[in-house]
Every structure is written in structure tokens, then in C-alpha cells.
Amino acid sequence: MRIVMLLLFSSLLAATAGGWAGAADEPASPAPAPPPPAFAQPIPELRLTNGTIFRRVTVVRYERNTVLLQSAGGLGSLPYSYIPQPLRAQMLAERDRAIAALVAASAPPAPTSRTVTGAAFLGVGSGLGLRLRFSGIAITAYPLAEAEAALNAKPPGPLPDPLATTTAGDEGQWTLDLPLNTPFLIHAKAGYRPDKSPRMIDLEWRIKSTDLEEGETVTLNESTAVPDDTPPPPTRAQPQPPTDKKKRK
Question: Alpha helices, DSSP H only, in the chain?
Fold first, then answer.
């Protein structure tokens, strides 16, 4: 009996090798997929559309145009057109589901963070040698709405918990890794003393994510700082030389 079943399967495989016009019309799959649990148990009896009967049939693997089956008579692939309805429709649906799961499992994970890079410096020269680099300053990203509310309050309120924080390097460069699709505000402060000036100039930055393009490098310099509304210190009145009010005779 086993020899007879093997011969039957061999004849079907030979017919498959000759080509099946209907099989090429089935939806394409990117790779073979293992069978889902729906066909984990053997099918007691499978009667093909040409009348051939196989017993104790198990689905081994789904392929583009064929299904690999294990039966009491051996292992072989059959075109889906040989599988009777409604079993054929069920197998095709299970094939597509298994392939979708295989593609999803092999796909790279979706990004969960956004990297923002920038530089903090004073001056707009083309070379780093023409700039004063703000190395060592803290650059912090906060949730946008909460940070704006705190900074715009009179007086300013406490800032929320940060999303990320970093420190500018020796050349003023910095990088922040932030949650994807989360609006943020980048906040930083720095100070410098101009040449021959007794006054310290303080700079503050409030860079909103809504003002940035994807992949844009964030520049922290005097042109992107928050305008300083602090009034300048009063200047001392210069002493005037005494005037002689006496009329000359």
C-alpha cells in the first residue's frame, strides 16, 4: 500500500512540474511560511480535485503557488488548484496570514526615538576659530506645552521633568535622543563677557520642535537666543567742570 501511495504522489509531482496555469494566478508571497496552528493536526482524508485520495495529511509549509504536504504516502508539493473548496480557500487564507506574520517578524523594528543634534557658540563666522564655543553648558529638552507654560508664567514656574538632557562638548556640539512624535522644547543658558565690558551678557534659548525641520541641526547662538529684556545698568553721571559765573571786568 505504501508503494502505491508513493507512486500516486510521484505522478502528481510530475504533473505539477509540467505547469499549472491556474496556480500562477494565486497571490505572490515573499518567502515560504510555516503552517499556522489551524492545520497542526492531520487531515484524516484529503480528496483532490482529480479524485486522488490522501490520508493523514499534514500541512508542512505554504509556498507561492504550492503547498507542501506530508501524508501517509510521503512528502510532496501540490498546486492549490488541486485542493478542493472550501479547503482551498481556507488554506490560501492561512497562507496569507502566515506570510504576513513572517514578514512582520523579519521587518526591522520601528523607530521609537528622534535624534536632535546642534551646536552652541557665539558668532557667525564660517570657521570654528572665529567662534566662542559654549562648551560644558547643559542642554535640556522638556515637554513642549508644560515647558512653555512654566517659562511664560509671571514669575516663571518650575520646569517639568525633562525628556532628555546632555552637555555641550569641547566644540559646542551636542546630541539629544528624544521620544518619537513627542513635541518638545530645548532649553539652555550661557553667558559671556564682551571685551572691555564690565557687564556679563546672559543668553537663553527656547527652541520648539514645531519650528524645526526633520534632521535640522539646531544652532544655539546670539541670533537664536530669547531677546534680553533686562534693562541696562544705569550709567554714572560724569562730573561737570565748574563754570565761572563771574563776569570779567
Answer: 2-17, 87-106, 144-152
